[in-house]
């Protein structure tokens, strides 16, 4: 277990995950608007 935690692969994986998480939080719009499609558009026409 100690070898896994200190391996370069594991450290790069964790570092990439951390950078990705920071990027997602940072680049997320502060006032994101969620648009809901009208019911007529989502229902299929027969």
What is the secondary structure topology, with strand pairs?
Layout: H1 2-6, H2 8-27, H3 39-42
Provide structural commentary.
The protein is mainly alpha-helical and 46 residues long. 63% of the residues lie in helices and 0% in strands. It has three helices and no strands. The chain has helices at 2-6, 8-27, 39-42. The longest helix is centred in the middle third of the chain and has 20 residues, at 8-27.
Fraction of residues in helix: 55-70%
Rg measurement, Å = 21 Å
* Number of strand segments: 0
Please give the oligomerization state of what you see. single chain
Q: Shape from CA axes?
A: elongated
Portion in strands: under 5%
Structural class designation: mainly alpha
Instruction: Report how far apart the termini are.
Output: 60 Å
What would the average pLDDT be, to the nearest integer? 77
- Report the biggest beta sheet as strand number plus sense, adding barrel if it closes: none
Uncertain stretches of 5 or more adjacent residues: none
**H and E string:** HHH
Number of helices: 3
């Amino acid at each position: 277990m100690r070898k896994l935690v200190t391996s370069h692969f594991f450290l790069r994986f964790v570092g990439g995950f951390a950078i990705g998480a920071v990027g997602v939080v940072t680049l997320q719009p502060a006032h994101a608007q969620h648009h809901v499609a009208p019911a007529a558009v989502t229902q299929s026409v027969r």
